[in-house]
Amino acid sequence: MVFTEGILLNEMMDGALMEVGTFLHIAIGLTESVQHAHKRKEVCGNLNPANIRIQSNREVVILTDSQLTDYTYMSPEQTGKINYIPDGRSDLYSLGMLYYEMLSGRLPFHANSAEEWIHAHLAVVPKPLSEWRSDLSDSLEAVIMKLLSKDPEARYQSAYGLLSDLKRCALLLEEKGEVTSFEIARADEASRFRITQTLFGREREAADLRDAFEQAKKGASSFVFVSGSAGSGKTVLVRALQMVVRRDGGRFISGKCDMMNRDIPFSSLLEALRSLIRQIWSESPDQVAKLKKELTKALGQGAAVIVQLLPEAAELFDVIPAIEPLQPAEAAIRFNRIVPIFIKVFVDKQNPLIIFLDDLQWADPATIDVLRTLVHDQARPGLLVISAFREEFAQSWKKNEGNKVDAAAWMAESLALHNESQLSVHHIHLEALSYIEVRQFVSDVLDENSARIRALAEVLYHRTGGNPLYLNRLLDKLYRENKIYYDEVEASWAWNPSVIMEIPEDPDIVHLIEARIRMLSPAKIELLAIGAAIGHRFCSLTISLVSGYPLLQVRTLLHAIEEEGLISREHESDASDDVERYRFLHDRIQQAAYMTMSESNKTSLHLTIGRLIRDDLSNERGFTIFDRVHHLNLGSEKIEDDAEKRELAEFNYEAGSKSKASTAFTSALHFYEIALRLSNGDWKNTASLDYRIMLEITECEYMCGHTDHAEELLANLMSCTTNVVERSRIYLIRIAMYSYLKKDETAVHIGQQALAELGWKFPSKPSKALVIKEILLTQSALFNKANDIPHLPINHDSHYKALSDLVMAISLPAYVLSIEQSAVLFSRFVRYGLKHGSNEAFSFMLASYGMVIYRISGFRTGTQYVAQASRLASSFDSADLQSRLYYLKGLVEIINPDEGIKKFEKSIQAGMESANLTYVGIAMMTTITNFTENLYSLATRIQEYEKTSQQLVDGVTMNIFQRAKWYISQMQDEAGHNDDYVTPLLNETYKDFVNNEVYYTCTCNLEIAYLFGRYREALEWAHRGERNTFLQTRPHVRKQRMYYSLTLAAMYSEVSPHEQKKIRMKLRKHLRAMRRWSGYGGKTSSTYLLLSAERYRMEGNRVDAARLYERAIRVARHAGEGLMEAISCERAAVFYRQMESMNGAEALIADACDAYSRWGATVKAVQLRASHPGLQTASNEGVEKDKMFIEQSGAIKRRSEGMSWRTAGNRQFKQQPEWMDALDNCRTMDQFLELSIRYSGAERGCMVGSGGEIYAIENEGSLSDHRGASYGESIVRYVLKTGESVILADALHSSYSADPTISSSQSRSVLCMPVLFSSRRMPFALYLENSLIAGVFTPDTRTMLEQMTARMMYVTSLDEARVQSDSPIVSSAHLSSTSEEASRLVVESLTNREREILYALTDGLSNKEIAYRFGLTEGTVKSYIHNVYGKLGVKRRSQAIARAKELELIN
Description:
Blueprint: E1 7-8, H1 9-13, H2 20-39, E2 52-54, E3 60-62, H3 88-104, H4 114-123, H5 138-147, H6 159-176, H7 186-190, H8 203-217, E4 222-228, H9 234-247, E5 251-256, H10 267-280, H11 285-299, H12 303-309, H13 328-345, E6 353-358, H14 365-376, E7 383-390, H15 407-414, E8 425-430, H16 435-446, H17 451-464, H18 468-480, E9 484-487, E10 492-495, H19 497-501, H20 509-517, H21 522-534, E11 537-539, H22 540-547, H23 551-563, E12 567-569, E13 572-573, E14 581-584, H24 587-594, H25 599-615, H26 625-634, H27 642-661, H28 665-679, H29 689-703, H30 707-718, H31 724-740, H32 744-757, H33 768-784, H34 798-817, H35 819-836, H36 840-856, H37 861-873, H38 879-893, H39 897-914, H40 917-929, H41 935-949, H42 955-972, H43 983-987, H44 996-1011, H45 1015-1026, H46 1034-1051, H47 1057-1075, H48 1086-1099, H49 1102-1119, H50 1122-1138, H51 1142-1159, H52 1162-1171, H53 1180-1193, E15 1204-1206, E16 1212-1214, H54 1218-1223, H55 1229-1240, E17 1244-1249, E18 1254-1257, E19 1264-1265, H56 1273-1282, E20 1286-1288, H57 1300-1305, E21 1309-1315, E22 1324-1330, H58 1339-1365, ...
Parallel strand pairs: 4-7, 4-8, 5-6, 6-7
Antiparallel strand pairs: 1-2, 2-3, 9-10, 11-14, 12-14, 13-20, 15-16, 17-18, 17-22, 18-19, 20-21, 21-22
């Protein structure tokens, strides 16, 4: 279009200052023209003085000649460098550039090239207008500077808002002769439709969450369960706590249970833990080293379990031990113990950890199991676990009238919270918003509080039922459909009440969202549906590969969908790939997007996704075997090729095995069943995949509680084979199942059947003669082969292993049921092993045999066999075997309790590592029942055991703990323990009932009754205990007999002469037996001396009695036996009182009180003092001091695309490769940093070396070693440690927000990436920052910087080659043979295509350029690049080039 009159704006300005009135007239006209375009849904996109004509009447005409594009007036988002799509606000930025120039006569900043202009628009702050024109009004200057905001969100949001302020300036100038100050942008804010982020009606709940966090900061721990209906704001409520946690130095991690894929075990927990590990790498090196040390100490061999589940954790361990294979039950125990320990290592008061698991109603059973363990573990200071639960969607759970689940009941049942009042569990239930709260919400959105707003709020309240999500979506829908609009004439929001009233009451919100989605373009609907099928999170690259759309088009479409308020981009991108990641704003949106497809299309789509993951994305981080099988399974109906079906069956088998290995038995069962259906083979063939699947299914079935079905399957499998070795595998599963169910007799019976098939038969009730015969035969065999045992060969024969596994499996149940039967079993296997060779089972059976004959016959050779077995076991790296052997060593050494308990401690440690909680439990139980130290040490030991075992040991052991705590409370008069643990024993007859609990309870009550003078009661407990001596240790039995004799001696003066005679006879008999004992309670013990003194006292031998009392006190004191010292003093006091030596008696009573107090029997000490008022009462402070001293001393020591921008007219301009020309002259680090800042849009930047050196450029000066340069240390540490990049769209709202530099400098955009220079051996971290605008740095920026690095290294390598060409030729003899071998191996492993890709990387080509060169897709190129990285052992392009040069793969 050609105009014959008027003047172009650039001709009018011509560098002169424009008068304010003239400026306002033109600016108002120009803004009106832009507003008219925006009302037509058009964006000008290329506003500049050369295409704006001012007519003679000063009317403004905007030309739209595409040839007049000018970088000078382009907005930051038009550069294509930030994650914003150009829109109307881009035109407003261009107006700001124009208005600044019109008023000042100069541009806000200057540049000499397109690249420099782009950098200026992104990172250079214009000087205030007042520096050029002091006569300008503050308000007018503020209007212009607001237009020039780098961040689109900080500018005027509409031309209407700008026009209102310009007209107000013109009006003030006309009325007052000047533009006076006023508040700008009020009309702009009022006309802006923006859903508020404020939480309405949730103030109390938010305060409850903050209180829970404050308690975590103080060291307390709790579990908060947030429930409510869909859309009630559960996630938003918890997320509001996130920034508070990070600001206060805590760690906030989260994971979401996926509605579309609930079969991936631990998916939400793993998502949270991956985030935690990423945060750890941002800690200081000292903190990381300390953490690694604590993890190694806490987990031991369990580290391998964590790494198998979470490969990202591998770098937290210097050494990763092999995983010891276990039966399913033991593996589950090990896993449920290890994972909470791993999590707790990251928790302390200074750094509380908050774990948020969203949508718990969709969690897999394995996740619930771990969560249950965490909740019940009270030894977790500083841990706060929060979960959100939707009440409508709990499967297999009774619902109420509103079709909702009782969330509290679900929580109590799933997490086993019944009768667990000591647990800190809080339930927050979110109700629907009230009318008042809905009115507040609507008033806030529409910025008005009037009668008509209240009427609108009332209608919306009844239509939405007060549901926040529905209210949000409905208002958004009404606005986008223009049913609620801003009336610019009336300057207020308007709507048609009749249209609002037509909205149906409380419809299905999913259908509402689906209707909103269907209003989008077909391409957007398609991309949303693909994203919904992938999951609640997805990336642009995967969407591109599935849809077939170019990546750039996909990015544009996803940005547009984001503007629609349906998805959001994840701003904390720290992955090494060059893609953007998105998530649905709510799973109801995901659900609605998924519903836009037919069932047939869903099947086809999942099949496409599954094949893509299988063929092209198998090496991509983020895709696992579970993602692959999930999509392929959903699309399996359309798989016609039998080979592909068999392949999918193998995939499911692999997924099932991984699930089973992580004890996710329900998920494993799901995958195995699908594998069996797809395989459709002959499960009766033991060599088939189907047979292997069936074996795995049986174990999963009984671990899931389906015992009958498991037994039925095992019976079917047994009928498939006559091979005894194969049958033994089936028998082992049955034995493990019944052992898990605590059915020892059945387990042993099955074991007998299995052994009989192997030619072994042994009776269930062997005679004494047979037992003696078997022992004598074995003793003879061991004697004859004594010299051969250490050199027995290891036997790997399958038949021998089958026999060994069976004997090991039934050894403990057989021993518990009958010591005679176990003696026969152990004897025969030892003889068998002497003939056929050694293995783990032989070592254990030899030790078990030694322990049994030691108990039965007292043969001293028994201890020798146990020691010999331990030496044999040293060649087997088995923590499970070590746990068993240490326990047996403890049993034969327990005659000296301190030595035996040391072995039990080692058994516990090894058992916890191998998850053999059977031996952990009996070792703990035996330690407690044989404990001889003071009560304070006993209490500490119990506390340690409860913490170590995490409530995972069997009920008998837990009961022993409870009875021991009750026993301590009786001695110390502590509240909290009642007689509920003992009462049942008083009301039942325990004849022929073998029970460790009973015997220990009898001993505790016998001791208490004796100490407090209730002698008849003591005798009753002694008689009860006599019936339960089987399987008790010798010290425990001797202790009970000791108190029985002491009770008889104390009663002596109160009984008849006939009874006195019986007492003396019993005491003499007991003393004769004690003279034959060694160790605990033997003839040199204080116990023997005290009972001897009591005997002489009864017989009237005062001299010997006095002498032996004194010796008993002295020996007990010297041995540190506080209780025996106290009892000896008390009994001696009784003796001296009978001798009428009152002074001596009082002195001894005082000593007894002191000894009782030091030992922990404070109630007894108080009783003694009360009965002897003449004693000087010790102060409470002294008692507490003694207690503190003893507690301390007795404490247990535990251990891209090409760079481009896009205008509103959707035209793409290829960016000039100016940086490539500049790099041809770039040789040094300072030149590279300067170019990086210039071309990335950074405001400032620095290079940080792994050695701590810092190089920075400030004020466009030269590069220097600048130790004071500010940068996000936590970000740099993460990058240098992991070798991965970090891109933060808004650092203030990221996981790094607590970094001191980030918080103090208010950093917005941050990019940090590893850079390797050819002249440097160690990598540097390139740190770039822009505090002016969010989202400056994108994956494209990173790609450009990587290409710059690769290009610079390429140019440098050319220089080096030229230098070498002028040097003498180096003899090949001087080359390193190691380098040659490494190069040869790498070259051989690289395919021809991979070598071509590697050469293309060295040329500095982008992925797109490589794809064009070889005719490939970008996804295929990425797969090749990942393969090259893996084979070279690198993570980045620059590292690949450096490594290839080192190996002489390129020249």
